[in-house]
């Protein structure tokens, strides 16, 4: 009894002293299946999870089964000193790290020094990014999450302690050609500028399972409305209602899909800072305009930033609940205060959502330092400027989503900032960078951080570049042209207009597949777009190749040992390998198993590096053996609720297979009340050698939007 009291006093009563918390005193508690938590020191009441309001999906975590604590607890170290928390986690030789937020240059994070700091895009992958998520995944199959809304310094296998049990070998640079400027380090160390913190460890045993547990612990991934997975056009910033209507009509006439149009700053009477009120010269009757567009199957999304103009009607009411510093001469609402939330979102609800607006593009909540409030700013809630900056994107996502939830309408939008806890929020990150290659690396890294990212299309110098960018964006979370400055349209380059139409129509045809994969993100935690490193057996495969082959003689072993940052998984079955301007061929690393060409069904390889020359018309896409891809007919708009849609179900390869097809009304939150269904698609070979496909019967009382089903067996 006395010993227990002593532990409590040591942990909570001596925070002003400098001391190390021993492994014996850190009592890790399994709070959900495969998820362990410990609190050290005095954690701050406001953190990433409280900001997001994320609630664990404990049932889904339970369904994943049990696993053991994945680290040696005796090698985890915490030290409280000078009002800061020093963390140390073990790192084995050969272990690779992924995550630490939305990075655009690198996939491998071992050997990096980072400050996880909310910011505008930078080109150094130094931790200053749109989603500085303090979560990392190991190739050994576990994850670590630090629940703090502070700027966290990370030394991901870079620092070497003098008392290390696994010190690097001493080498002489004068005589040893293997001398390295960065010696081997056996730890991930982090510095949190707070007197305590909550720590979480997620078990595997595979990296994918660790990622899934992290996502499910944060409520599971977002489930967009069906229309959100269609095609969107963001129009010129000064378009009027007539301009928008004309452009939508052109899409219809030319046969290009369109599900929602984004209005840029000119829809507001004033912007930078914002009034959040319609400009009456460009949009004299906003409600009639929005409803007319809805009647044509096109929804309206509104750009905004959160900063309140002194000329806004809500300014006098919200001014007492704003920060000490302005942004673009606009007041910064303290959105942690309920009264501020009520005033702010009340305006949005009254003038936007209540008349049928379907979503938002929330800009400028990331950085640069010269744009946002400084770290010396104060807020009426008492939160620091640092904490507010780390979570402001999550606050606007969460509170706007809740506003749509009151109307029982799902939304899907764009945002410039996210963080841990934002997994379930229906927003896709974007930024001002325009490197196609970086966009793909960002898409890969998004799967490690519980975020979504779009490689949007804006403008191009040539028709080739235009088409290559289009091909990538149609295999991403949001298929979008952002023409706010360029006024570009899908048919801007006539020489590739038909190919653009074909790929955008393919995006629509694949909607049953995309929608199901997002449902898996929500219910099972599997990222819909992710690195090949999360594929089953990828780690095991790597070890075998390295053990059994001379690297100089085995290109596959070399390929899987290096960063793979230009190809990614799209859903359960698809491997996408984008082409970039000027490329006529490229290498593709095929993970374990047989892979087939998406377009022809031809076998392309098995666990090897291949070279493809697809021509300009196609983006290379490959399907796992046994892959089942449900597709619908070409439609210009997403199906309406309860609309029956015929399916063509494709099966690839020689493996019999089953695929769970998800269904609900596509627009409301009724799925949270059990109004959804999973139907099983089965492909099997008959005794006579022919293939047969079946779909299970619909459940009584459950949504059923499936019409006639035909099967196409993609066997050359």
TrEMBL record:
Protein's recorded name: DUF5110 domain-containing protein
Matching CDD domains: GH31_N, GH31_NET37
Domain of life: Bacteria
Key word Signal present: yes
Signal peptide: 1-23
Species this chain originates from: Runella salmonicolor
Keywords associated with the record: Glycosidase, Hydrolase, Signal
Residue ranges annotated for the DUF5110 domain, each copy included: 647-700
């Amino acid at each position: 009894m006395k010993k227990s009291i002593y532990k409590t006093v040591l942990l909570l009563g001596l925070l002003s002293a400098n001391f190390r918390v021993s492994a014996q005193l850190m009592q890790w508690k399994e709070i959900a299946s495969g998820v362990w938590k410990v609190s050290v020191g005095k954690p701050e009441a406001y953190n990433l999870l409280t900001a997001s309001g994320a609630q664990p999906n404990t049932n889904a975590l339970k369904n994943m089964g049990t696993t053991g604590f994945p680290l040696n607890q005796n090698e985890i170290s915490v030290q409280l000193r000078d009002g800061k928390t020093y963390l140390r986690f073990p790192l084995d030789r050969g272990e690779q790290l992924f995550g630490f937020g939305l990075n655009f240059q690198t996939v491998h994070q071992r050997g990096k020094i980072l400050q996880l700091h909310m910011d505008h895009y930078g080109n150094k992958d130094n931790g200053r990014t749109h989603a500085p998520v303090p979560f990392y995944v190991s190739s050994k199959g576990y994850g670590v999450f630090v629940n703090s809304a502070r700027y966290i310094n990370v030394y991901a296998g870079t620092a070497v302690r003098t008392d290390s049990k696994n010190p690097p070998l001493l080498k002489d640079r004068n005589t040893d050609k293997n001398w390295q400027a960065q010696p081997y380090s056996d730890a991930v160390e982090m510095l949190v500028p707070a007197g305590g913190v909550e720590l979480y460890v997620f078990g595997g045993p595979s990296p994918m399972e660790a990622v899934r547990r992290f996502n499910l612990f944060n409520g599971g991934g977002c489930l967009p409305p069906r229309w959100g997975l269609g095609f969107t056009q963001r129009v010129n910033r000064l378009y009027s209602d007539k301009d928008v209507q004309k452009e939508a009509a052109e899409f219809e006439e030319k046969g290009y899909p369109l599900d929602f149009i984004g209005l840029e700053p000119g829809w507001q009477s004033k912007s930078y800072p914002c009034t959040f009120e319609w400009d009456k010269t460009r949009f004299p009757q906003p409600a009639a305009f929005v409803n007319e567009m809805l009647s044509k199957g096109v929804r309206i999304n509104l750009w905004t930033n959160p900063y309140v103009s002194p000329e806004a009607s809500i300014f006098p009411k919200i001014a007492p609940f704003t920060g000490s510093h302005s942004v673009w001469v606009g007041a910064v609402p303290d959105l942690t205060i309920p009264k501020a939330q009520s005033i702010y979102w009340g305006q949005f609800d009254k003038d936007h959502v209540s008349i049928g607006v379907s979503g938002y593009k929330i800009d400028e909540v990331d950085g640069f330092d010269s744009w946002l409030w400084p770290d010396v700013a104060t807020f009426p809630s008492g939160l620091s400027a640092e904490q507010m900056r780390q979570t402001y994107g999550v606050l606007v996502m969460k509170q706007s989503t809740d506003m749509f939830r009151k109307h029982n309408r799902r939304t899907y939008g764009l945002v410039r900032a996210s963080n841990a806890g934002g997994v379930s929020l229906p927003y896709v990150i974007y930024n001002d960078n325009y490197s196609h290659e970086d966009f793909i690396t960002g898409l890969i890294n998004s799967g490690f951080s519980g975020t979504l990212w779009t490689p949007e299309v804006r403008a191009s110098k040539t028709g080739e570049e235009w088409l290559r960018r289009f091909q990538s964006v149609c295999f991403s979370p949001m298929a979008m042209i952002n023409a706010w400055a360029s006024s570009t349209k899908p048919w801007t380059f006539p020489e590739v207009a038909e190919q653009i139409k074909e790929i955008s129509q393919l995006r629509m045809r694949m909607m049953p597949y995309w929608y199901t994969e997002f449902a898996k993100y929500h219910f099972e935690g599997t990222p819909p777009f992710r690195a090949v490193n999360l594929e089953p057996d990828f780690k095991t495969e790597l070890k075998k190749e390295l053990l059994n082959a001379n690297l100089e003689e085995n290109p596959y072993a070399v390929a899987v040992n290096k960063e793979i940052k230009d190809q990614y998984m799209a859903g359960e079955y698809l491997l996408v390998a984008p082409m970039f301007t000027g490329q006529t061929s490229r290498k593709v690393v095929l993970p374990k198993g047989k892979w087939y060409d998406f377009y022809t069904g031809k076998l392309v390889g098995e666990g090897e590096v291949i070279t493809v020359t697809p021509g300009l018309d196609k983006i290379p896409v490959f399907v796992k053996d046994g892959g089942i891809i449900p597709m619908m007919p070409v439609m210009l708009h997403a199906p309406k609720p309860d609309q029956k849609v015929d399916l063509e179900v494709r099966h690839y390869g020689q493996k019999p297979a089953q695929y769970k097809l998800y269904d609900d009304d596509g627009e409301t939150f009724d799925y949270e009340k059990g109004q959804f269904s999973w139907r099983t698609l089965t492909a099997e070979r008959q005794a006579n050698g022919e293939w047969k496909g079946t779909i299970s019967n619909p459940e009584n009382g459950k949504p059923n939007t499936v019409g006639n089903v035909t099967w196409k067996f993609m066997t050359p």
